[in-house]
Structures are given as structure tokens and as C-alpha cells.
Amino acid sequence: IRCWSNIPFITVPLSRAHGKSFAHRSELKHAKRIVVKLGSAVVTRGDECGLALGRLASIVEQVSMLQNQGREMMIVTSGAVAFGKQRLRHEILLSQSVRQALHSGQSQLKDMAIPVLEARACAAAGQSGLMALYEAMFTQYSICAAQILVTNLDFHDEQKRRNLNGTLHELLRMNIVPIINTNDAVVPPPEPNSDLQGVNVISVKDNDSLAARLAVEMKTDLLIVLSDVEGLFDSPPGSDDAKLIDIFYPGDQQSVTFGTKSRVGMGGMEAKVKAALWALQGGTSVVIANGTHPKISGHVITDIVEGKKVGTFFSEVKPAGPTVEQQAEMARAGGRTLAALQPEQRAEIIYRLADLLTDQREEILLANKKDLEEAENKGRLALPLLKRLSLSTSKLNSLAIGLRQIAASSQDSVGRVIRRTRIAKDLDLEQVTVPIGVLLVIFESRPDCLPQVSALAIASGNGLLLKGGKEAAHSNQILHHLTQEALSIHGVRDAVQLVNTREEVEDLCRLDKLIDLIIPRGSSQLVRNIQKAAKGIPVMGHSEGICHVYVDMDASVEKVTRIIRDSKCEYPAACNALETLLIHRDLLRTPLFDQIIDMLRVEQVKIHAGPKFASYLTFSPSEVKSLRTEYGDLECCIEVVDSVQEAVEHIHKYGSSHTDVIITENEKTAEFFLQHVDSACVFWNASTRFSDGYRFGLGAEVGISTSRIHARGPVGIEGLLTTKWLLRGDNHVVSDFSEHGSMKYLHESLPLPQRNAS
């Protein structure tokens, strides 16, 4: 805990030797000394006359938060000219109206022309007001701010430089936020020059160059440049092919076309890039981002410091492999080529992958052993996750069998005609299956997921991005290598990509222009995080697996304990494991009920009593905290219901629409349950554990979906396809079908082509 003026605040452990910029975004959280440069477009309103107060207040809040974490924050701000222009216009209008009223003696005023205001006069009038505003805002967070006005001469005079440096260091030492601006009241108009060419030479001709000079002079860790665009684009923003550059490296300038400068201010994007590269060369990391967008401006600074993918990050370290954006583009191109192959060729790739899993089992198991040893040494994984991480010969054999099932069933998946309609004479319409596009599958601790999902993507002709957990890095690497080896037999190696960069899952979920569907495979927390982070990309999956088994009054004694034991105890960490056991009231205090309780005790299942069940007991187990709990372990809740209708109502209220089971010998009761329970999977006299793509005969699954749109339940090949419409005509136009036209609609259903029987 640090204290200043009796105000305690938590400090972040921040320390590093200055001299080299951060290589990756993830390292920005270690930045201690930070300069935030606010461009004119960020600080001023759209009418360029006056300040954007709400935006400025949000920026001050973020800077204060970082300052109170123990960081040393500095602000280079524009806005004095705009604030002064507002004040001077008001004064001129007031003065003119008074003079006109006195001169004419009339209360009605004519239109008054406002003279062009000189920028230096505006700056002189606005600087004090701007600083007063900053002081008032920072005071809300118990932070003191101090104003420093500089000119280019202050950096060229050695004594002034030392004075400035000493002043800034002293302010930072006292936990004061310096607010720095060029002294626009006295600064001469900018002249073209050849500055920004080297570390030792830079002219302060705008706030971009001032921020860069100051950042290097003060050995700053990070410079954040906020403007009115998202960052640096490879061509002028707004043009058709403009793409935001995530990471910019020195030497990439030739790949960028600069547009016009900002609507206000002295510098355009070219000036910002030159200043950023100069600062980077001096050992300061730089991010250029949008400080005006209403959806992100409230957290843009803190997001950057947390390492999130915001704006353009300037780095001197160029990665060896492609960026994730390039990987997504490669996956899309590869996926389109894959979809154009013959079905037999796609099946051949999957058969080859199945063979490789068994042929190369020694290498796979050796890589998996490394992952297991590292996980055990670090002690980060719980036992259930270690079991998921582990591969074995039997697991690989089962995988190979599942892949061969997928290959055999995929012969007519892509391009299958599912509807044919004759619209009119010689005008035929077809609806055919096509791949979704590019899939992003994010999975934890389960390397066996990689070949399963890859095979389903290959069978359905989709491009695939895979993001596995770092705990399975060695296993994923070799499995991906084998997948690409199989793809190479038909020249589509790039269709499946493994993301190995330091991309955060949240950043991947923002790639809405490159990814068409996200499929999370992991904990309910992972799924919820992805559903929350996904920006405009559909997410297929389920956040919880709260599965119920209802034991009806007509249940068979022989079936009940077998089904309950298998549903709960066979693999309690699975999403299709039993979590809540519903028992008909008439079964309480019967031999069947005693058998159920005894079996659960033998299996060491911890029982939680639902409110109604607890009311029937003198000494009850611990009462459940919530009936909406996914235990994922040898625990379950028992609750009592009066009828099958009440069981259905309970499931709808507390369930997650995953898998629900009824055990009964009464067919009418069973059919009522099957028809009325609104879940992805509803079973009669069968374990919840059957809710699985392999057990359904799908070969494998990309996951289980509880969504009500597109795919539901275990998702195999069919769930990774969508459709498109093909219309074949002969000089047809809509006007021919008007009231007085020559043609009539037929809308005849046509027979479908025969499916491949093999």
C-alpha cells in the first residue's frame, strides 16, 4: 500500500528496466509510466467549438483508476484552442448584441457575422479554463493535477530540458498527474521540416510529436495516442478494402496509404505514425486507438493497459508465423477449396487422419506425456481436468473409429439438394447444403477434441481456427501437424489452423469479419465468457449442463438404480451427467427410495436436499443453496415432485435445456414427458450420458448445443452446414409474372435426387 496525503491505494507490482519496448500486448499490464495523448478530435465536440465533457470525464476516470493502482500517469492534451474559441465567440456575440442594441435602440437583433478567430488568441483564452476543468474532474478522485506548457525551444535548450525533466519527475513522485500542452498562445505556425528522422532529433510542431518527445525524454513505458479512428489502417479508413492493422512494425510504412488529417488539430495519421515510430525507437511502446467511439471510449485506456486487442500496437518484434487475422483468411480460402473437392476426396483426408492417429501413436503419447508432466509439476489442474488432458492407446483407437464413421457418413453432406421447386416453366429453384464458413473452436484440456473437430470441419467443408489450452500445447501441436499432413494429400493444408499466438480468447471473439461461428468446448465459465465476449458472431454451445432424472411412481425397480448410477457416477464431470434427481412423492419411504439412497452412498455421492424434500425429513442432508447448480462432481440434488406435470415445470424453471430423463413403465406418462419437456435431448428409461455425438452415431461432435436456432443437441456434420438457393432460368424477369404478364407461377415440388446409398 502506498499513501500520499493520507489517501491509501493499492499499488501494482510494476518494475522493468527502460530501454526496450514491450514485444507483446500482454506485457502492457507491466507498464508503470504511461503518457496518454488526447487528440483534438477526442477532446472537442463535433462542432469544433467547445469540449466533449462526457468523453473527457470518462478519460479522467480511467487515468485516475490507473494512477491509483500505483502507475505514473501523464496527459498530453489538446483542446485549449477549441475551449477558447467557444469563450471568445460567446464574448463577441455578447459584445455585438449589446452594441447593436444600444446603437439601434431595438430589441430585435439582426444576423451578426462572427470574425475569424486567431488560433493563438483562442489558446490564450482557453488554457486556464481547460486546466480548471481537469482540476475539477481529478479532484473527484482525490488526485491533484498540474499544468505544464511547453514549446519546441524548451526541448532544444539543454537547461530548459533538464528543468522540465526535473519538474515532471518531482510531480510524479508526489502522485500528481501532469497535464502537458504546447503553449499555443506563443508558438509560431508549423513549418515543413525533416524532423522525426532519428532518435536525437524531433520538432515539437503538434501534440503527437510533443507526446513522443516527452515519452522518450521521461523514459516512459507506454504511449497511448487517442484519435477519432480505430487505429492505423492499411488504406484510408472508410475505403472499401481498408483493414485495421493490429500490430505495426518499423519498415511497414510502404504498405500503408495515408488519408487526410483529422477534422481538427495539427497532425494527421501520418504524423501520428512517425511520432509513434520515433517513440518506439526510443524504447517506448505505443498504441494508437479510438478515443471518441461511444461504445469503447469509456474503457479504451484501461483495455489497452490490460493487453486487450484495441487499436494498433507498435512493436519491434515481428512474430515468426502469421497473425491470427492472416490465419483466419488462410482458413477461409482453404475451406472454400476444401468445399469444392469431391466428397470422396474429403472422406479420403479423414481416413488418412484416422490412420495417422494409430500409426503415429508413440509420438502423440510422448507429446501428451510432456503436457501431463508439466501440468503435474505446476499443480494447476484438478484431477478431472488431468483426466481430460490424458491420452491413451485406447483413446486414440476410439478416436480413429469415430473419424472413420465421420468419413463414411460424409459422402453427400456438402451440396446435398434438400428442396426442389419449379417456380415456372424453365425456372427451377434448388436449396442445397453448404459450409457455414470459418469456425472458431476454443477448447480446454482436451487434445482429443482437435482431431474430432478437424474431421467434422473437413467433412462439412468448413475452414477451421483452433484455440487450445496451453496445458495441452505439445499434444495439440503434433495432432495439428498430423491433421495438416492429411489435408496435404489434396492440397488444402491451410484449411485447419492452430492459433499459437498470444491472442486472448476475448480478442478472437471480436473478429466478426473473419469468423462465422464460435464453438466453445470447456467449462461452463469458459462458455459464458465467450458468449459475453462475442461481438456479432453466433456462439453454438451451452453454458450449463443441469440435467435431470425424474423417477416416476411407475418406475421399474431394476432400471432405476442402474440408470441413476450411470447418469451420475460414470463420469460426473461431463456436461451430460445427472445433477438433480426428481422423485415422485409416493416413492418416499419405500424400498425403492431406500435403494436409491444406499446406492448413492456406496458411490460416495454427496446429497443436497431440495426445499420440498427437506420438509419431509427430520434429519435432512444439507439443504441446496440453489436448484440451478451444475456440480460437475460426485454431488447431486434430490427434490420431490407430486406429478409428471410438476416434474416438467421444475425442469423448465431450473434446468438448462440440455438433457432430461424419465424412468417409468407407464407409456402414456413417458410420452407426456417426451413431448412436453423443452430440452435439446429428452430420454425415456435411458441414461443422460447417451447425449453424445459418438453415441448418437454422428462419429463425433463439436459440442452440445442448447440453442433453439440452427442446431440443437449433439452437433455433428449436419450442424456445421447451412444452405443456399440456386435458381436456374432462361431469360426470366419478374415483370412477366405481373397481373397482365405472360407467365404464371407454378410452385411445383420436384422430386429430390437419390442420395448416395453407400
From TrEMBL:
Its EC number is 1.2.1.41, 2.7.2.11. GO terms for molecular function: ATP binding; glutamate 5-kinase activity; glutamate-5-semialdehyde dehydrogenase activity. It is found in: Mitochondrion matrix. Gene3D superfamilies: Acetylglutamate kinase-like (3.40.1160.10), Aldehyde Dehydrogenase, Chain A, domain 1 (3.40.605.10), Aldehyde Dehydrogenase, Chain A, domain 2 (3.40.309.10). Pfam families: AA_kinase, Aldedh. It catalyses: L-glutamate + ATP = L-glutamyl 5-phosphate + ADP; L-glutamate 5-semialdehyde + phosphate + NADP(+) = L-glutamyl 5-phosphate + NADPH + H(+). Its main location: mitochondrion. SUPFAM superfamilies: ALDH-like, Carbamate kinase-like. Pathway: Amino-acid biosynthesis; L-proline biosynthesis; L-glutamate 5-semialdehyde from L-glutamate: step 1/2; Amino-acid biosynthesis; L-proline biosynthesis; L-glutamate 5-semialdehyde from L-glutamate: step 2/2. The keyword ATP-binding applies. Residues 32-290 form the Aspartate/glutamate/uridylate kinase domain. GO terms for biological process: L-proline biosynthetic process. Can form homodimers/multimers. In the N-terminal section; belongs to the glutamate 5-kinase family. In the C-terminal section; belongs to the gamma-glutamyl phosphate reductase family. This is Delta-1-pyrroline-5-carboxylate synthase. The gene is Aldh18a1.
